[in-house]
Every structure is written in structure tokens, then in C-alpha cells.
């Protein structure tokens, strides 16, 4: 599979799906759901220029330390962490880049994930401000909040329906703006959910991502998962 990918006989999307499967990740287990990378960082431009490297996220760094001040925060958290009982090893991140709650968060508008989310929240929808309501806002939250290190799920590259509230669920309204949470707010460069998926998939298969995807794979599936390489890459999870 690796050789096929290097020879460009299979797409980046197909290669990532294969890697997830080999790593034991599966659509049948929310705790081991397939994980895909955030690949862009431009969610505000009117047009998306895939020939400009500046629109892409740095795939060599964990999503949690894409910003310098957060990077410093995690460095010192790791250096100064000490479990008095000596049971818990040092870590940079107390949460994970993929977990069941995160999958339900993204897929809240689609069954059976809606029902699972309601069960998780003791029989009701979570507070609207904590729900997945906007792609630009979700990216900005990652940049501002050291406790959010969620990567993406494969649906961001092929399934426009999860961005629409086709079932008409009452997801509440945001506290400050009073905006009703309905369909997911898209980046300015996407004119519809289908357009977002088309351009996002195109970005995944772009020359820039093809040249740098292996750096993210090292973090999630490869040699930077644990040990000294993980410490150096600020990639140690609780």
C-alpha cells in the first residue's frame, strides 16, 4: 500500500483509510473511529488558493501546538508535570485527538449519532455554544483553546449531508449572538456543503498535502507516537 501511494497509484484519501484500518480504527467503534487531519488553516478568504502554501496547516506539528504561545504552554506543562503517586507519566495533552464524544460532536445532525449524543448528555442536546455549528469557529477554537486538540473524521472529505440539519433538530441558539444553530456555517470560499466537500477533498489531494502528509502520519500512526521522538514533537498524550 505504501509503495502504491508513493507511486501515486492510490489517492491520499485512500491511503489514510487503509492506514486507519491497519491501525485497528473502524467505523464500528466510536472510541477507535478513523482519524483524518485538519489540512487547511484558511477558513476566511473569499477564494481558496491551493497553490499558496500559506493556506495549509503545518502537518509536521500536532494540531494542539499550531500556535506559538500554546506550544510554549504544552512544553512547560510536560516539563513541570509530576504525579505524586508516580503512576501517571508526563504528558502534553490531557485529552485526545480522536474520541467518541468528538465523533458525536461532528456528526450530531445525523442519526444514529444524534441519539447517541443525547444519551451522552443525559437525555438532551448539549448547550448550543459547545456544539459543532461553524467550521471557521471550530478552527479558531483550536487556535485559542489548549484543551481542544480534535483532528477531523473522514466525513469531512466525502459526506456533505453531515453539514446540514436535514432532520430539523432543535439545537438551540448561541448565548451571545442569539444565532439559531441549524446547518453548519461554512468557510466563505464554500458556497454549499457539496462545494465545501469538493474543495476540501481537492485540498487533501493537492501537491502540498501529498508532499507533507507523511509528517502527520508519523505523529498519529508512526514513530512520533511515543518515546523520545514524541516528547521532542510535543506529541505525548495522557
From TrEMBL:
Transmembrane segments: none annotated. One of its GO terms (biological process) is intracellular protein localization. InterPro entries: BEACH_dom, BEACH_dom_sf, BEACH_Domain. It comes from the Eukaryota. Residues 1-238 form the BEACH domain. The keyword Cytoplasm does not apply. This is NBEL1 protein.
Amino acid at each position: 500500500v505504501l509503495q502504491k501511494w508513493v507511486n501515486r497509484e492510490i489517492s491520499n484519501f485512500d491511503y489514510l483509510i487503509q492506514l486507519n484500518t491497519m491501525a485497528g480504527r473502524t467505523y464500528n467503534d466510536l472510541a477507535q473511529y478513523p482519524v483524518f487531519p485538519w489540512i487547511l488553516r484558511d477558513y476566511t478568504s473569499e477564494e481558496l488558493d491551493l497553490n499558496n502554501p500559506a493556506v495549509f496547516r503545518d502537518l509536521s506539528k500536532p494540531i494542539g501546538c499550531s500556535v506559538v504561545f500554546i506550544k510554549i504552554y504544552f512544553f512547560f506543562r510536560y516539563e513541570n508535570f509530576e504525579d505524586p503517586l508516580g503512576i501517571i507519566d508526563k504528558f502534553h495533552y490531557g485529552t485526545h485527538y480522536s474520541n467518541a464524544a468528538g465523533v458525536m460532536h461532528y456528526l450530531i445532525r445525523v442519526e444514529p449519532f444524534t441519539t447517541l449524543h443525547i444519551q451522552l448528555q443525559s437525555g438532551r442536546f448539549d448547550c448550543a455554544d459547545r456544539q459543532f455549528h461553524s467550521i471557521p469557529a471550530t478552527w479558531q477554537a483550536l487556535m485559542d483553546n489548549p484543551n481542544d486538540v480534535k483532528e477531523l473524521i473522514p466525513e469531512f472529505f466525502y459526506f456533505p449531508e453531515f453539514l446540514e440539519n436535514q432532520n430539523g433538530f432543535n439545537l438551540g441558539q448561541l448565548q451571545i449572538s442569539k444565532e439559531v444553530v441549524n446547518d453548519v456555517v461554512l468557510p466563505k470560499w464554500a458556497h454549499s456543503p457539496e462545494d465545501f466537500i469538493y474543495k476540501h477533498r481537492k485540498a487533501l489531494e493537492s501537491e502540498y498535502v501529498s508532499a507533507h502528509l507523511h509528517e502527520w502520519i508519523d505523529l498519529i500512526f508512526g514513530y512520533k507516537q511515543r518515546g523520545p521522538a514524541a516528547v521532542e514533537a510535543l506529541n505525548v498524550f495522557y
